[in-house]
Amino acid sequence: MTEESVTDCASLRWSAGRGLHPEPERLAVEAPLALEISYDRAGQRVSRLLAVTMRTPGDDRDLALGFLYCEGLIDSAADVLDGEALERNSRGEPMATWRSHLARTPAESLLRVTRGFITSSACGLCGRNTLEGLRLRSPVAGVPEAPLDGSRIVQMPERLRALQSAFAETGGCHGAGLFEAAGEPLLVREDVGRHNAVDKVIGAALGAKIGLDGRVLVLSGRAGFELVQKAAAAGLAAVVAVGAPSSLAVDLALDSGITLIGFTREGRFNVYAHPERLAPGSPL
């Protein structure tokens, strides 16, 4: 994370012994980012605004790449020729903007179901134009590199937390980590939006040519529908969350073949979908 990802804030703290007293704080920054694409159409270079998301600044390239992949607009990092940070979007509005230059024109059917306006840091589904936009890329989970061992699963959230520098400063960032099935962390990204954190970690893996198939996504919070969708669309084998899953997330995990684990803390966890991938002797 960059220095602009956190900021100083004056605050007052109350305690029984001291009452109100000044206590400076460090806060996670939340700021808008316009996500755009450009591509050639009939000999003209076209720029198109896809969404405005509220995110923590930093790793914007990763965020854009992961967003485009999970939306089904690209199939690999090679489909993006380049990207650039701009101070105005294609409508001329002053706003931090990341424009990805695509190697080919996306299918119009995909463009019609992408987000059309502002998405909050809390909800990655906000701004969908149609219900069909909820499931763009056919989610099919990958096969884990090795059986998922319960004793290593319970350690994954702790290892993720240890690598969350912005959370350590602010207590206000979600974390997403890409882990090997054996429990080793490969990449960690943070953001005020849990869906942005997942886009960032998937985009970072694509950009660094780190394989996603069969690996594990570890989440610092709950596992909602879109986070499981992103994991399955990326070919990940499992999602391990500190918090609870939603009912729709469980349905999707069952349909797509992804192992879904929640409430992973204090040496225990719950398995909601596809427990057969756990090693014999793992707690269920």
Describe this structure in words.
By secondary structure, this protein is an alpha/beta fold. The chain has two domains: 31-134, no CATH class; 150-277, Cytidine Deaminase, domain 2 (3-Layer(aba) Sandwich). It has helices at residues 60-70, 108-112, 150-153, 156-162, 165-170, 194-207, 225-233, 247-256; strands spanning 6-9, 12-15, 19-22, 25-28, 31-41, 44-55, 80-88, 94-102, 118-119, 174-179, 185-191, 216-219, 238-241, 259-265, 268-273. Strands 11-10-12-13-14-15 form a six-stranded mixed sheet, sandwiched between helices. A five-stranded mixed sheet has the order 7-8-5-6-9, with helices on one face. A two-stranded antiparallel sheet has the order 1-4. A hairpin with a 5-residue loop joins strand 10 and strand 11. The longest helix is centred in the last third of the chain and has 14 residues, at 194-207. The protein is flat and about 60 Å long. Mean pLDDT is 88; it is low at 125-136.
Please specify the SSE layout and strand pairing:
Layout lengths: L5 E4 L2 E4 L3 E4 L2 E4 L2 E11 L2 E12 L4 H11 L9 E9 L5 E9 L5 H5 L5 E2 L30 H4 L2 H7 L2 H6 L3 E6 L5 E7 L2 H14 L8 E4 L5 H9 L4 E4 L5 H10 L2 E7 L2 E6 L11
Parallel strand pairs: 5-8, 6-9, 12-13, 13-14
Antiparallel strand pairs: 1-4, 2-3, 5-6, 7-8, 10-11, 10-12, 14-15
Helix pairs in contact: 1-6, 6-7, 7-8
